[in-house]
Amino acid sequence: MTEKRHPHERRRGGLSRLLALLLVSAVSFWLGRLSIKEEYERLHEQWARREEPRIRARTVPPTEQEAEEAGPESEALAQAEPPVPEAPSPQTEPERAPSRAAPTEVRPSPAGAQLRELSAEIRGSVARTLGEMLGRDLGDRLAQVTGRLLVWWVDPTRDLRRGDSLRILYELPEEGEPIVHALAFHSQKLGQTFEAFRYQARGEEFPRYYDRQGREVELRLENSPIERYEQITSLLRDGRGHQGMDFKAPVGVPVVAPFAAVVTRINFNQRINGRCVEMEDAKGRRISFLHLSEVAPEMRPGARVSRGQLVGLSGNTGRSTAPHLHYQILSKSGRVLDPLKEHPTYRKSLPKSELAAFQAAVERLDRRLRLAAAD
Ligand SMILES: [Zn+2]
């Protein structure tokens, strides 16, 4: 009997030992996962909170600052920045973080997003046309983001003709402004159709707009004051009476001097311009950077600045409703100059490795756009 029970017990013992082992390894595996997850979350949080090399803000005594605000010179720039009716957007979007931290992670195409199609014949302005279709509020908001694309092709204040057609594929996120995913615009005056497709390339921080060949719709500035930005949201020629160029960018992106210059003043008229720097170059051009979150300590009036030197960090200070850099150039006589003419410009194209994925995205968007036209 004992001999018979013995092997059975041994087998049982072996089984429970095996079970215990399994349990222990399961628990340790689970614990391991937990700590990996915690570690990931910690890193992610750290990234989201990450700050560019922080600059200690120069503290301007309030009395001095008020004196500057009252100065007659400040008026020119105070007016230079009309209220920018930009829809507020979340300050920095940590959701975008992983795409930057891990370039292999691609944002899924907008297939999952709730896309709406629209097909319109222009009557009057884009805002009026869209307002009649969607109501004033949404019409205005969509016209604004649409205008940022049209402005690269036509002068929206002069070139629109009755019967020009506009097809838009857009998304209305819960927060922030409408997102245009694809747009086709036919101009009677130019006899040409223009297209823009929104696409985020692997390893890129922001999605951008491309034509069908994968060339960016927007021009870029050589020796740009800012490299990491999402979109140019205002140009001189967009007919809004705005005197500079606005770059939509998160808070804390380095802003550099596009030309060698001498600092003339900082933090003037802060109520409107926010933290800001103005400098003058050898040609007497007055170059300014507004709404900064921080001004570099080297930026003292009289200081020489070389091209590419850090001026400060982008921000949302002063009269600004969304984080952006306002970049402005005035001639010696005070005339507003167009940065697109003061800088050499170029267009970037998608790298070859990105074209197949891009073409697939274009096809998907295009199908929806054609549906819009058929309605
Ligand atoms: Zn501006």
Q: What does the model show?
A:
It is a single chain. The protein has 375 residues and is α+β, with helices and mostly antiparallel strands. The chain has two domains: 74-95 and 219-346, Glucose Permease (Domain IIA) (Distorted Sandwich); 106-218 and 348-375, Nuclear Transport Factor 2, Chain: A. It has nine helices and 18 strands. It has helices at residues 2-49, 62-70, 74-80, 97-101, 126-134, 136-150, 270-273, 339-342, 352-374, and strands spanning 115-121, 165-171, 179-187, 192-199, 208-210, 220-221, 231-234, 245-248, 254-256, 261-266, 275-281, 286-292, 294-295, 304-305, 310-313, 324-330, 336-337, 345-346. The strands form four sheets. Strands 7, 8, 10, 11, 12, 14, 16 and 17 form an eight-stranded antiparallel β-sheet that branches. Strands 1-2-3-4-5 form a five-stranded antiparallel β-sheet, with helices on both faces. Helix 5 runs antiparallel to helix 6 (136-150). The longest helix has 48 residues, at 2-49. The chain is globular, with a radius of gyration of 27 Å. It starts with a helix and ends with a helix. The model is unreliable at 1-10, 31-54 and 56-109 (pLDDT under 50). It binds zinc ion.
